[in-house]
Design brief:
Elements: H1 6-13, E1 17-21, H2 29-41, E2 46-50, H3 53-60, E3 67-70, H4 74-83, E4 87-90, H5 94-97, H6 105-118, E5 123-128, H7 134-146, E6 151-154, H8 169-176, H9 179-189, E7 196-198, H10 207-212, E8 217-220, H11 230-246, H12 250-256, H13 263-269
Parallel strand pairs: 1-2, 1-8, 2-3, 3-4, 4-5, 5-6, 6-7, 7-8
Length: 270
């Protein structure tokens, strides 16, 4: 594992990373500050915010939680590092999908090379796009490893179809939303030595599965969207962290927790 930020190393080594995502296109400073305070009061590892230098300066003025900025704009990322960002992410692509922007693997590689020339000694996380088939995802992950990228992240296209499974309906539908991200986590984590973070609709039910499939941690954003106050946010983040800590014995986890069959979802990725 090769990380520049010493505050992150222990969390990644123990595979207990909890990244709190405020949203790549969120400019609601009140909401961002609430999440930042919850992250500071809880066991969150770091905060992921939009690449906005004003937001970075405000957060760094009162919080010691490491700050990650997400964008596909090299200049924005560079300016945020100058403003105090601790790490950067090429990802959280949701806003770009809505604009019909889908990066090819070669475009991702070119973007990474350009950003690394600008930012030499800061950790870079790259999201592996969900719309690539599994072979392409693994190939991209391996190419990024060769470029000395520090962290990878998976994402998911939300699968909203509900099955008539009354006994496990709540659990199934909760995990179903993050199923593609979990599948990518399993395949990619088995193919590279870079730490992998599972993100996109991850919650307290899917978090232990992400760890079981090889993730070093998870990213949560939407799971906090219905929390109205800092106390509830803090409690939920701690609940997520506790599920990572308690599931260090993966054999016990496998024997006692429902694990979905992802063979069906592999067809969606081909």
């Amino acid at each position: 594992m090769n990380l520049f930020n010493t505050k992150l190393i222990e969390h990644f080594n123990s595979k207990q990373v909890v990244k709190v995502i405020t949203g790549i296109n969120s400019s609601n400073i009140f909401h961002i500050l609430k999440l930042a305070k919850a992250a500071e009061l809880s066991n969150a590892t770091y905060l992921d915010v939009a690449a906005n230098t004003k937001v970075i300066k405000i957060l760094k003025s009162f919080s010691n939680v490491p700050i990650c900025v997400s964008s596909i704009n090299p200049l924005d990322l560079y300016n945020c590092v100058l403003a105090g960002a601790d790490l950067i992410e090429i990802g959280n692509f949701d806003i770009f999908y809505k604009q019909g922007i889908y990066l090819s693997p070669s475009q991702v590689i070119d973007l990474v090379k350009e950003i690394r020339l600008l930012i030499e000694d800061v950790d870079i996380c790259v999201t592996i796009p969900y719309y690539l088939n599994l072979f392409e995802q693994v190939k991209l992950a391996q190419n990024l490893q060769d470029l000395d990228i520090n962290i990878l992240q998976t994402e998911s296209l939300a699968v909203t179809n509900k099955l008539n499974l009354p006994l496990i309906d709540n659990m199934f539908n909760s995990i179903n939303l993050s199923s593609l991200s979990l599948l990518s986590t399993y395949i990619i984590a088995s193919s590279v030595q870079i730490p992998v973070i599972s993100s996109s609709k991850i919650n307290n039910l899917s978090t232990p599965i992400a760890k079981y499939y090889g993730a070093s941690g998870i990213g949560i954003g939407s799971a906090l969207s219905d929390k109205d106050n800092i106390y509830d946010m803090t409690c939920y983040i701690n609940e997520i962290h506790k599920s990572l800590v308690l599931n260090n014995n993966l054999n016990d986890f496998h024997n006692n927790v429902f694990i979905p069959n992802f063979l069906y979802y592999s067809d969606l990725m081909s």
